[in-house]
Amino acid sequence: MRIGITVWIGLTAVLAAKTAFAEDTSLALPSITPGFTAIYVAEDRGFWRDQGLTVKVSQIAGVGTINAVIAGSIDFSGSTAGTLIRAAAAGQRMMAIANLTDRPMDEIVLRKDVAARLNFDAKAPLVERAALLKGLNIAVDAINTINHGFLRYVAKKGGLDPDRDITVAPMQSPTMAAALVSKAIDGMSISVPWTTAVVVDGNAVTLASVPNGDFPELRPFGGGLIVTRPTFCTEKHSICVAMGRGIVAANRFIQEHPDETLAIIKPRFPQLSEVTLATALQNYRSASPVPPAVTPAVLTNSQTFEVNGGLTKPENVLKSYDGMFTDEFVR
Asked: Could you read off the pLDDT of 75-110 as tens digits, one per residue?
Protein backbone atom coordinates (compact mmCIF):
# COMPACT_ATOMS: atom_id res chain seq x y z
CA MET A 1 0.00 0.00 0.00
CA ARG A 2 2.87 2.34 0.87
CA ILE A 3 4.35 1.83 -2.64
CA GLY A 4 0.97 2.62 -4.23
CA ILE A 5 0.67 5.82 -2.23
CA THR A 6 4.21 6.81 -3.22
CA VAL A 7 3.44 6.31 -6.92
CA TRP A 8 0.20 8.27 -6.60
CA ILE A 9 1.98 11.14 -4.86
CA GLY A 10 4.64 11.10 -7.57
CA LEU A 11 2.11 11.25 -10.40
CA THR A 12 0.20 14.01 -8.65
CA ALA A 13 3.39 16.00 -8.30
CA VAL A 14 4.20 15.58 -12.01
CA LEU A 15 0.71 16.67 -13.06
CA ALA A 16 0.79 19.62 -10.67
CA ALA A 17 4.17 20.70 -12.02
CA LYS A 18 2.94 20.41 -15.60
CA THR A 19 -0.13 22.50 -14.76
CA ALA A 20 1.97 25.06 -12.91
CA PHE A 21 4.19 25.58 -15.92
CA ALA A 22 1.42 25.49 -18.53
CA GLU A 23 1.37 28.53 -20.81
CA ASP A 24 -1.71 30.25 -22.20
CA THR A 25 -2.23 31.62 -25.69
CA SER A 26 -5.06 32.53 -28.05
CA LEU A 27 -5.96 31.71 -31.65
CA ALA A 28 -8.70 33.29 -33.78
CA LEU A 29 -10.23 31.65 -36.84
CA PRO A 30 -12.21 33.56 -39.50
CA SER A 31 -14.79 30.80 -39.96
CA ILE A 32 -15.65 27.18 -39.21
CA THR A 33 -14.36 25.19 -42.17
CA PRO A 34 -12.64 21.84 -42.77
CA GLY A 35 -9.62 23.92 -43.73
CA PHE A 36 -8.99 24.23 -40.00
CA THR A 37 -9.26 20.50 -39.32
CA ALA A 38 -5.74 20.52 -37.84
CA ILE A 39 -6.91 23.05 -35.25
CA TYR A 40 -9.93 20.95 -34.30
CA VAL A 41 -7.77 17.82 -34.04
CA ALA A 42 -5.11 19.57 -31.94
CA GLU A 43 -7.88 20.78 -29.60
CA ASP A 44 -9.80 17.55 -29.25
CA ARG A 45 -6.81 15.18 -29.11
CA GLY A 46 -4.95 17.36 -26.62
CA PHE A 47 -1.85 17.83 -28.76
CA TRP A 48 -1.28 21.34 -27.42
CA ARG A 49 -2.05 20.28 -23.89
CA ASP A 50 0.63 17.59 -24.24
CA GLN A 51 3.07 20.43 -24.98
CA GLY A 52 2.06 22.32 -21.85
CA LEU A 53 0.03 24.86 -23.85
CA THR A 54 -3.54 26.00 -23.27
CA VAL A 55 -5.02 27.51 -26.44
CA LYS A 56 -8.21 29.58 -26.33
CA VAL A 57 -9.73 29.27 -29.82
CA SER A 58 -12.29 31.86 -30.92
CA GLN A 59 -13.92 33.00 -34.15
CA ILE A 60 -13.61 36.51 -35.62
CA ALA A 61 -15.09 37.02 -39.07
CA GLY A 62 -12.85 37.56 -42.09
CA VAL A 63 -9.74 39.73 -41.86
CA GLY A 64 -10.76 40.63 -38.30
CA THR A 65 -8.60 37.69 -37.26
CA ILE A 66 -5.31 39.13 -38.45
CA ASN A 67 -6.40 42.62 -37.34
CA ALA A 68 -6.84 41.24 -33.84
CA VAL A 69 -3.30 39.84 -33.95
CA ILE A 70 -1.96 43.17 -35.19
CA ALA A 71 -3.77 44.94 -32.35
CA GLY A 72 -2.33 42.49 -29.81
CA SER A 73 -5.67 41.18 -28.53
CA ILE A 74 -5.02 37.70 -30.03
CA ASP A 75 -1.68 35.90 -30.32
CA PHE A 76 -2.32 33.83 -33.47
CA SER A 77 -4.72 33.91 -36.40
CA GLY A 78 -5.76 31.39 -39.00
CA SER A 79 -5.37 33.38 -42.23
CA THR A 80 -4.72 32.82 -45.90
CA ALA A 81 -1.38 33.76 -47.42
CA GLY A 82 -3.25 36.47 -49.33
CA THR A 83 -4.27 38.14 -46.09
CA LEU A 84 -0.66 37.99 -44.89
CA ILE A 85 0.55 39.50 -48.17
CA ARG A 86 -2.02 42.30 -48.21
CA ALA A 87 -1.17 43.20 -44.62
CA ALA A 88 2.51 43.43 -45.55
CA ALA A 89 1.71 45.61 -48.58
CA ALA A 90 -0.13 47.94 -46.19
CA GLY A 91 2.93 48.19 -43.96
CA GLN A 92 1.98 45.52 -41.41
CA ARG A 93 4.43 42.65 -41.88
CA MET A 94 3.40 39.62 -39.83
CA MET A 95 5.01 36.21 -39.30
CA ALA A 96 3.60 32.88 -40.56
CA ILE A 97 4.81 29.83 -38.63
CA ALA A 98 2.76 26.99 -40.18
CA ASN A 99 0.68 26.15 -43.24
CA LEU A 100 -2.34 23.92 -42.58
CA THR A 101 -3.34 23.36 -46.22
CA ASP A 102 -0.97 23.60 -49.18
CA ARG A 103 -3.57 24.51 -51.82
CA PRO A 104 -6.90 26.32 -51.97
CA MET A 105 -9.91 24.03 -51.75
CA ASP A 106 -12.01 26.15 -54.10
CA GLU A 107 -14.39 24.91 -56.74
CA ILE A 108 -17.00 26.42 -59.03
CA VAL A 109 -20.18 24.40 -59.48
CA LEU A 110 -23.15 25.01 -61.80
CA ARG A 111 -26.77 24.08 -61.35
CA LYS A 112 -27.47 20.95 -63.40
CA ASP A 113 -30.11 22.53 -65.60
CA VAL A 114 -27.85 25.51 -66.30
CA ALA A 115 -25.02 23.15 -67.25
CA ALA A 116 -27.35 21.22 -69.57
CA ARG A 117 -28.53 24.43 -71.23
CA LEU A 118 -24.92 25.44 -71.87
CA ASN A 119 -23.97 21.99 -73.21
CA PHE A 120 -21.40 21.65 -70.46
CA ASP A 121 -18.74 18.99 -71.06
CA ALA A 122 -16.80 18.02 -67.94
CA LYS A 123 -13.96 16.71 -70.12
CA ALA A 124 -13.55 19.91 -72.13
CA PRO A 125 -10.39 22.00 -71.65
CA LEU A 126 -10.52 24.41 -68.74
CA VAL A 127 -10.55 27.44 -71.04
CA GLU A 128 -13.79 26.21 -72.64
CA ARG A 129 -15.43 25.38 -69.34
CA ALA A 130 -14.45 28.76 -67.87
CA ALA A 131 -15.97 30.62 -70.84
CA LEU A 132 -19.40 29.21 -69.87
CA LEU A 133 -19.48 31.55 -66.88
CA LYS A 134 -20.42 34.49 -69.11
CA GLY A 135 -23.76 35.97 -68.14
CA LEU A 136 -24.25 33.73 -65.10
CA ASN A 137 -25.18 34.65 -61.54
CA ILE A 138 -22.58 33.08 -59.24
CA ALA A 139 -22.61 33.14 -55.44
CA VAL A 140 -19.51 33.93 -53.37
CA ASP A 141 -19.20 34.28 -49.61
CA ALA A 142 -18.27 37.98 -49.80
CA ILE A 143 -16.70 40.50 -52.16
CA ASN A 144 -12.90 40.29 -52.46
CA THR A 145 -12.53 37.08 -50.47
CA ILE A 146 -10.37 34.23 -51.76
CA ASN A 147 -13.53 32.62 -53.15
CA HIS A 148 -14.41 35.75 -55.11
CA GLY A 149 -10.81 35.94 -56.27
CA PHE A 150 -11.04 32.34 -57.45
CA LEU A 151 -14.12 33.19 -59.54
CA ARG A 152 -12.20 36.03 -61.17
CA TYR A 153 -9.16 33.80 -61.64
CA VAL A 154 -11.20 31.15 -63.47
CA ALA A 155 -13.18 33.67 -65.53
CA LYS A 156 -9.96 35.20 -66.85
CA LYS A 157 -8.82 31.77 -68.03
CA GLY A 158 -11.98 31.70 -70.14
CA GLY A 159 -11.18 35.09 -71.68
CA LEU A 160 -13.89 36.89 -69.69
CA ASP A 161 -13.95 40.18 -67.85
CA PRO A 162 -14.93 38.84 -64.40
CA ASP A 163 -16.31 42.15 -63.18
CA ARG A 164 -18.53 42.71 -66.23
CA ASP A 165 -19.36 39.32 -67.66
CA ILE A 166 -20.50 37.68 -64.41
CA THR A 167 -23.08 38.74 -61.81
CA VAL A 168 -21.77 38.12 -58.31
CA ALA A 169 -24.19 37.26 -55.49
CA PRO A 170 -22.60 37.53 -52.01
CA MET A 171 -24.18 35.23 -49.41
CA GLN A 172 -23.18 33.07 -46.47
CA SER A 173 -21.75 29.70 -47.47
CA PRO A 174 -24.37 27.52 -45.71
CA THR A 175 -27.22 29.34 -47.52
CA MET A 176 -25.83 28.79 -51.03
CA ALA A 177 -27.22 25.28 -51.47
CA ALA A 178 -30.79 26.43 -50.83
CA ALA A 179 -30.32 29.37 -53.22
CA LEU A 180 -29.05 26.98 -55.89
CA VAL A 181 -31.97 24.57 -55.50
CA SER A 182 -34.48 27.45 -55.63
CA LYS A 183 -32.76 28.71 -58.82
CA ALA A 184 -31.93 32.06 -57.23
CA ILE A 185 -28.32 31.55 -58.41
CA ASP A 186 -26.75 29.68 -61.33
CA GLY A 187 -23.72 28.44 -59.44
CA MET A 188 -21.31 28.84 -56.55
CA SER A 189 -17.65 29.73 -56.13
CA ILE A 190 -16.69 28.44 -52.72
CA SER A 191 -14.54 25.81 -51.05
CA VAL A 192 -15.46 22.24 -50.26
CA PRO A 193 -17.54 20.94 -48.48
CA TRP A 194 -20.19 23.45 -49.64
CA THR A 195 -19.60 22.57 -53.29
CA THR A 196 -19.32 18.90 -52.38
CA ALA A 197 -22.78 18.90 -50.80
CA VAL A 198 -24.66 20.10 -53.91
CA VAL A 199 -22.74 17.73 -56.19
CA VAL A 200 -23.30 14.73 -53.91
CA ASP A 201 -27.01 15.65 -53.70
CA GLY A 202 -27.20 15.67 -57.49
CA ASN A 203 -28.11 19.35 -57.80
CA ALA A 204 -24.92 20.60 -59.44
CA VAL A 205 -21.91 19.68 -61.56
CA THR A 206 -18.32 20.80 -61.08
CA LEU A 207 -17.12 23.40 -63.60
CA ALA A 208 -13.62 23.95 -62.20
CA SER A 209 -11.83 22.49 -59.20
CA VAL A 210 -8.49 22.92 -57.46
CA PRO A 211 -8.87 19.60 -55.57
CA ASN A 212 -9.57 17.78 -58.84
CA GLY A 213 -6.30 19.06 -60.35
CA ASP A 214 -7.44 21.84 -62.70
CA PHE A 215 -4.89 24.33 -61.31
CA PRO A 216 -1.49 22.70 -60.69
CA GLU A 217 0.06 26.16 -60.50
CA LEU A 218 -1.74 26.71 -57.20
CA ARG A 219 0.37 24.19 -55.30
CA PRO A 220 2.06 24.83 -52.96
CA PHE A 221 -0.22 27.56 -51.69
CA GLY A 222 -0.98 29.25 -48.40
CA GLY A 223 -4.50 27.99 -47.88
CA GLY A 224 -4.44 28.28 -44.10
CA LEU A 225 -1.50 29.90 -42.35
CA ILE A 226 -0.95 30.32 -38.63
CA VAL A 227 0.12 33.94 -38.28
CA THR A 228 1.47 35.96 -35.38
CA ARG A 229 3.22 39.27 -34.74
CA PRO A 230 6.81 39.45 -36.04
CA THR A 231 8.38 39.64 -32.56
CA PHE A 232 6.02 37.29 -30.73
CA CYS A 233 8.05 34.11 -31.26
CA THR A 234 11.18 35.86 -30.03
CA GLU A 235 9.42 37.09 -26.92
CA LYS A 236 7.39 33.88 -26.36
CA HIS A 237 9.56 31.27 -28.01
CA SER A 238 8.24 28.33 -25.98
CA ILE A 239 4.65 29.13 -26.95
CA CYS A 240 5.53 29.07 -30.65
CA VAL A 241 7.40 25.78 -30.20
CA ALA A 242 4.37 24.22 -28.51
CA MET A 243 1.96 25.67 -31.07
CA GLY A 244 4.02 24.31 -33.97
CA ARG A 245 4.50 20.87 -32.44
CA GLY A 246 0.77 20.57 -31.80
CA ILE A 247 0.00 21.38 -35.44
CA VAL A 248 2.60 18.90 -36.72
CA ALA A 249 1.03 16.19 -34.56
CA ALA A 250 -2.44 17.15 -35.78
CA ASN A 251 -1.54 17.04 -39.48
CA ARG A 252 0.15 13.68 -38.99
CA PHE A 253 -2.97 12.40 -37.20
CA ILE A 254 -5.15 13.58 -40.10
CA GLN A 255 -3.04 11.52 -42.50
CA GLU A 256 -2.89 8.39 -40.35
CA HIS A 257 -6.37 8.33 -38.78
CA PRO A 258 -9.03 9.46 -41.30
CA ASP A 259 -11.96 7.79 -39.54
CA GLU A 260 -11.11 9.32 -36.17
CA THR A 261 -10.54 12.69 -37.84
CA LEU A 262 -14.00 12.49 -39.42
CA ALA A 263 -15.49 11.80 -35.99
CA ILE A 264 -13.76 14.91 -34.64
CA ILE A 265 -15.01 17.31 -37.31
CA LYS A 266 -18.51 15.85 -37.77
CA PRO A 267 -20.08 17.64 -34.74
CA ARG A 268 -18.83 20.96 -36.10
CA PHE A 269 -20.79 20.51 -39.35
CA PRO A 270 -24.16 19.07 -38.30
CA GLN A 271 -25.84 20.43 -41.44
CA LEU A 272 -23.72 18.25 -43.73
CA SER A 273 -24.27 14.57 -44.41
CA GLU A 274 -21.54 12.12 -43.42
CA VAL A 275 -21.01 11.22 -47.09
CA THR A 276 -20.48 14.89 -47.99
CA LEU A 277 -18.12 15.49 -45.09
CA ALA A 278 -16.15 12.30 -45.70
CA THR A 279 -15.72 13.22 -49.38
CA ALA A 280 -14.55 16.71 -48.45
CA LEU A 281 -12.17 15.34 -45.84
CA GLN A 282 -10.43 13.21 -48.48
CA ASN A 283 -9.54 16.43 -50.30
CA TYR A 284 -8.35 18.17 -47.15
CA ARG A 285 -6.24 15.18 -46.11
CA SER A 286 -4.38 15.33 -49.43
CA ALA A 287 -3.78 19.04 -48.84
CA SER A 288 -2.53 18.72 -45.24
CA PRO A 289 1.27 18.76 -45.50
CA VAL A 290 3.65 17.06 -43.08
CA PRO A 291 5.59 19.05 -42.09
CA PRO A 292 3.17 21.99 -42.40
CA ALA A 293 5.89 24.41 -43.42
CA VAL A 294 5.60 27.85 -45.01
CA THR A 295 8.07 28.28 -47.88
CA PRO A 296 8.92 31.01 -50.41
CA ALA A 297 7.05 29.01 -53.09
CA VAL A 298 3.91 29.03 -50.92
CA LEU A 299 3.98 32.83 -50.75
CA THR A 300 4.99 33.32 -54.40
CA ASN A 301 2.16 31.15 -55.76
CA SER A 302 -0.30 32.76 -53.38
CA GLN A 303 0.75 36.26 -54.42
CA THR A 304 0.43 35.39 -58.13
CA PHE A 305 -3.10 34.15 -57.45
CA GLU A 306 -3.86 37.34 -55.51
CA VAL A 307 -2.90 39.51 -58.46
CA ASN A 308 -4.66 37.40 -61.10
CA GLY A 309 -7.72 37.14 -58.88
CA GLY A 310 -7.94 40.91 -58.51
CA LEU A 311 -7.29 40.84 -54.77
CA THR A 312 -3.89 42.56 -54.86
CA LYS A 313 -2.91 45.38 -57.19
CA PRO A 314 0.21 44.74 -59.31
CA GLU A 315 1.88 47.82 -57.85
CA ASN A 316 1.57 46.30 -54.36
CA VAL A 317 3.41 43.08 -55.21
CA LEU A 318 6.03 42.27 -52.60
CA LYS A 319 9.60 41.98 -53.82
CA SER A 320 10.73 40.10 -50.71
CA TYR A 321 9.17 37.95 -47.99
CA ASP A 322 11.96 38.60 -45.51
CA GLY A 323 10.75 38.26 -41.94
CA MET A 324 7.31 37.00 -43.00
CA PHE A 325 7.71 33.26 -42.40
CA THR A 326 9.72 30.60 -40.63
CA ASP A 327 9.74 26.80 -40.57
CA GLU A 328 11.54 26.69 -37.21
CA PHE A 329 8.50 25.52 -35.25
CA VAL A 330 7.26 22.75 -37.55
CA ARG A 331 10.51 20.94 -38.39
From this structure: 999 999 999 999 999 999 999 999 999 999 999 999
Residue 312 CA neighbour count, 13 Å, CB half: 25
* Residue type (1 letter), 227: V
Which among 202, 218, 234 is the end of a domain?
Answer: 218
Report if residue 262 sits inside a domain. Answer: yes
- Whether omega before 220 lies within 30 degrees of 0, making that bond cis, reads yes
Confidence at residue 21, expressed as pLDDT on a 0 to 100 scale:
63
Domain assignment present for residue 171? The answer is yes
214 lies in the same domain as 227: no
Last residue of a domain, one of 165, 190, 218: 218
CB-CB contact of 101 with 294 (8 Å): no
Judge if 291 and 303 occupy the same domain.
yes
Q: What is the pLDDT of residues 137-153, one digit of tens each?
A: 999 998 988 999 999 99
Domain that holds residue 199: 106-218
- Residue 27 included in any domain: yes
The dihedrals phi and psi of 24, each to the nearest 5 degrees, come to -110, 145
Q: What is the pLDDT of residues 285-306, one digit of tens each?
A: 999 999 999 999 999 999 999 9
**Phi, psi values for residue 169, rounded to 5°:** -120, 100
Q: pTM for this structure?
A: 0.86
Residues 91, 45 share a domain? yes
